[in-house]
Amino acid sequence: MGHEFDHLMRLAIDEAKKGLLEGEVPVGAVLADLSGRILAMAHNRPIALNDPSGHAEILALRCAGSILKNYRMPGTVLVVTIEPCLMCMAASINARITRLVFGATDSKAGAGGSVFNMASDSRLNHKIEVISGVMEDECRALMQDFFRGRRRDAILTDCGEVPKWS
Q: Which residues bind Zn(2+) (predicted)?
């Protein structure tokens, strides 16, 4: 399942790895039109930007909005390595993206169907088609390896506990 999105997910994974090199939680996002033309790519940067909204999805939406000269983005697909949080799902709904594709679920904060299901909430004025599990193992491993390393570093430096990511 999801082979049609593998190319875009590989780009999102490459973005996530850029974030990893910068010390950010490794999440990558790619926004493309439905024909596959890439509009924007981004990775998490809340630490570098001192901005709690500096998530990969938000940064990709902002970039695409500038390029499209519009805050509405119907006919687009957002490909993300990890299931978006509430903030990122809300922004995606407000941007009117058509489809969300993600790799691994986020069992603590996911808003694309695991913890919350904003994408198809009947109380909201826009619905987003969700496709999950694209290159799931690779996306999950990237996050797990990152947090394992953070926990190991916390133990070595005695600077506190780092939460697990399942």
A: 55, 85, 88
